[in-house]
Design a protein that fits this description.
Elements lengths: L2 H30 L7 H19 L2 H12 L6 H17 L4 H24 L2 H22 L5 H9 L5 H23 L15 H14 L7 E5 L5 E5 L2 E6 L6 H20 L15 H15 L3 H14 L9 H8 L16 H17 L7 H13 L25 H20 L2 H6 L4 H10 L9 H7 L7 H16 L2
Parallel strand pairs: 1-3
Antiparallel strand pairs: 2-3
This protein binds zinc ion.
Length: about 500
């Protein structure tokens, strides 16, 4: 096979992988949103069939040969072609750890596990999910063992979501967060809490849907290319830049919950919407890593969404849509209210300061699960113990405990650290952005376009072409310095609480 033939084969491989990926992600989004509850039974076999066909199509010997030819002659190729070949080399290496039958069976397992988890969460019934969780953990351990038996299995999994991530790097990061933030969390607890009563008033869901539309408009999200739906657990799915889906969950008596879910998922959506046309329908047409993806969502959610200038603008919209509920509230009270820092049970609703502790709990849980140090039956008790240890709260039930997140039911073990890494990356991106742009002047005017433009130019457009290190370097962001994240949180909450 010559180089031209190899590049043509790579093109066909991208087409095949994108088409199957598109079909399967659309089925999965449909399953989470519009499809009736029992639909998972039929979807499981369809997903397994498609996964098996994708496996057979992708793993054909000529594809592997094409990748080898391109990588041997990398100097004669465009950088993007090399990156695509590397990406498929890694994907095929992971795929071929399993037979086509095993690969398809896993797809079916995940589909079923998600349905079982969904039901178990609603009923707060961990026992009904436990056997599925056990199978998923077993699969992860098997994957890690087959991929690299010489490495610690959890390190192998961390690397899937953030290339290069491992416990030797993450342990000091989480130690730093725990050591530096715990005293701040304690000091905040001794100060009077801001008022939040108005956030718990009745906000009819039909009107909250209008609020979501207004927030998406404020963020500059193109609704012709991005739809919103409602699910148990908010998420974003981007098939390509012309079809991005976000979801949220409404609570009548908690208007901030959906507000910040929409802004968070909107941040993911802007990333997917902003990947350059030339990477669409290739394996580079999505985010660089999950850490970088979460840096974008958490950037909008917190650095922008929970800033004083943004809160003033958002409160203006809220007051217009809910005049009665907000009649006795000031902009200042709204800003302080949505920044209430208090140890709590639910990660997705946690404030910025205590949020890293929620991730720490999951990191510790995953370490022990994957090491096999704890049985599946013991996990809820371990969850409760770690929430007591790191957040000082008592977990009243599994619905608000171990069943709250969808990640494990979807087979995502090793994903959670991406949220903490992303939050830290975001603080450093903001610093670079502030050097080039009047961020806060624009946000105060309700104009987020300079923010999205900066992120679009330095992060979004590249998709998966660049690694996190390359993105940070080319955007003139310092190498990863988590001390800056700690300093940002300490300064912000010292000012809010008068420490
Ligand atoms: Zn996210």
């Amino acid at each position: 096979m010559n180089l031209q033939e190899a590049i043509a084969a790579l093109q066909r491989l991208d087409e095949l992988s994108c088409a199957y990926g598109h079909a399967m992600s659309t089925l999965s989004v449909d399953g989470e949103t519009a499809a009736p509850k029992q639909s998972w039974r039929g979807r499981g076999s369809t997903m397994a069939f498609l996964a098996g066909e994708m496996y057979r199509g992708m793993s054909r010997p000529e594809n592997r040969e094409a990748i080898a030819v391109i990588l041997q002659q990398r100097d004669a190729c465009e950088h993007a072609v090399v990156r695509r070949a590397e990406e498929f080399r890694d994907r095929l290496e992971e795929m071929l750890l399993f037979t086509a039958e095993e690969y398809a069976a896993y797809e079916e397992l995940v589909n079923e596990s998600q349905a079982i988890w969904h039901d178990a969460k609603q009923r707060g019934d961990y026992a009904s999910f436990a056997p599925w969780l056990e199978k998923l953990i077993e699969h992860e351990r098997l994957f890690a063992r087959r991929k690299d038996p010489s490495r610690d299995p959890y390190d192998v999994l961390l690397d899937v979501y953030e290339k290069g991530a491992c416990q030797a790097k993450l342990d000091p990061f989480f130690d730093l967060l725990r050591e530096k933030l715990t005293p701040v969390i304690r000091a905040v607890a001794d100060r009077p809490a801001p008022r939040t009563d108005f956030l718990r008033r009745s906000y009819p869901i039909a009107q909250q849907r209008v609020f979501s539309d207004r927030l998406m408009a404020l963020m500059g999200i193109d609704r012709e290319r991005c739809a919103i739906a409602e699910t148990e657990h908010p998420f974003t799915d981007g098939a390509n830049k012309w079809d991005v889906r976000i979801t949220t969950h409404y609570y009548e008596h908690d208007v901030a919950s959906s507000m910040y879910s929409v802004i968070h998922e909107g941040g993911h959506a802007l990333y997917e919407l902003g990947v350059a046309d030339e990477w669409q329908f290739t394996c580079l047409g999505t985010g660089s890593t999950m850490g970088i993806h979460e840096s974008q969502s958490r950037f909008y959610e917190n650095l922008i969404g929970r800033s004083e200038p943004f809160c003033r603008v958002a409160f203006g919209i809220l007051r217009e849509l809910f005049p009665e509920q907000t009649a006795d509230v000031t902009e200042e009270e709204f800003y302080r209210g949505v920044n209430l820092a208090v140890p709590s049970l639910i990660r997705t609703e946690a404030d910025e300061l205590t949020y890293p502790m929620h991730i720490l709990v999951r990191y510790e849980m995953e370490k022990r699960m994957i090491a096999g140090d704890v049985t599946v039956a013991e996990l809820p008790a371990l969850w409760a113990e770690l929430y007591r240890k790191y957040l000082g709260v008592t977990v009243p039930n599994d619905r608000e405990g171990i069943l709250q997140d969808s990640h494990w039911s979807g087979g995502a073990f090793g994903y959670f650290p991406s949220y903490a890494l992303g939050s830290a990356y975001g603080v450093q991106m903001l610093e670079a952005m502030e050097r080039e742009t009047d961020v806060w002047g624009a946000v105060a005017r309700g104009d987020l376009s300079p923010v999205t433009r900066w992120l679009g130019e330095h992060i979004h457009q590249y998709g998966r072409l660049k690694t996190p290190e390359e993105l940070l370097r080319s955007a003139q962001v310092d190498p990863f310095l988590p001390e800056k994240y700690v300093a940002y949180l300490t300064d912000k909450f010292s000012a809010l609480y008068g420490l």
